[in-house]
Amino acid sequence: MSGHGDPIPMTSTACGPLRGVADVPGDKSISHRSLILGAMCVGETTITGLLEGQDVLDTAKAMRAFGAQVTDHGEGKWSVRGVGVGGFAEPDGVIDCGNSGTGVRLIMGAMATQPITATFSGDASLNGRPMARVTDPLALFGCQTVGRSKGRLPMTLVGARTPVPVRYVVPVPSAQVKSAVLLAGLNAPGQTVVIEKEATRDHTERMLQGFGAEVSVVETEEGREITLTGQPELVAQHIEVPRDPSSAAFPVCAALIVPGSDVLVPGIGLNPTRAGLFTTLREMGADLTYENERVEGGEPVADLRARFSPDLIGIEVPPARAASMIDEYPVLSVIAAFASGQTVMRGVRELRVKESDRIDAMAKGLRANGIVVDEGEDWWTVTGAGHGKVAGGGLCASQLDHRIAMSFLIMGMAANAPVRVDDGGPIATSFPIFEPLMTALGAQVSRDV
Ligand code: S3P
Questions:
Q1: Is 354 assigned a ligand-binding role in the annotation?
Q2: CA distances from 411 to 96, 262, 285 (A)
Q3: What is the pLDDT of residue 1?
């Protein structure tokens, strides 16, 4: 079921060549951070290209509840008049973060060192996800929490009245945990230090620097060590949100498997902590090129050109690359189904605690479409059927997970029989224009009535 309404069953059918330009929406990670950091400075932050997906809209609503003035000026232009570091007001009601783990975990971090109390909740997917990974380090600052069993939402946080800075080694590769600690560190005196053993997306560090905070990053024996000096005065910014590589993944992958396709996906953020999928696709033999490479708003950006690639081969994805493509494994497994040979994905335990258990959700749906999948706790393999030999015809459960729904709809575009998903509703959380965008390229995606 969709978190925000009745289920929307959808079907995707094999189509002719996909051609044209795919203007995908703004980056989800950067959109959340723009609103949250904008709310923590004094003055007006202006944003263009904000992703207007439900996840980000829920964060905008939350920032208003904490006292920021958040205004939608239309066409992706937004402004945030912030309340300053430590200036959050206590919300009147429950903060509903919908489907968004990023939203709730970053906002919890931002409020944990402020003398206010707030209660957080979400949809069935979010309320099942582990929150101890953020509340454990937030407790070190002096924040108290009461939630459901196994550290799940709904949960109330009582922010620290006299926060202390912390030194924290993040035990799982998670940019959300790292970011929650850094945002909490903003209102703690002195230096907060976060160490990550594996580098994860670094938008929070980059953006904190952009907003005027003192942040240094050094590589040490323990890992990547980030030091933030607390209680800065953040300076309002103008932010141009690059387009989301995680959304670009869908038209790119569709073009690789639909015969005759040639699709341009312009202006995609290629921050190395995010671009692992594209490297992997090229290793598999994808005809995928970067055009017009440039830097925009401090982030590397390029236009991606993807063409039909009939000779894809399965590969072993290096585990060290996992963090840089963690959200892309579902759609990679679809590409793996159209490749020849086996694709092996190891070191991906984190996939089990996303919007769904993504290994389980993809394995079930791939098998329903005639693909052989093997899995363990932190690995899975997909045995490719090869181009033209993916049976399709399956009904796939999206499990309240946008990326599962979109991955199977991409599969249907080149499978021998239509592929159905039980609920495409969650797609609106991250890629609200997925259906019209794919249809305009030539895809046949429809809502079942
Ligand atoms: C995100 C971090 C990742 C990713 C999510 C967005 C972020 O989650 O899966 O979609 O914006 O920080 P984890 O921190 O759980 O790896």
A1: yes
A2: 33, 17, 18
A3: 35
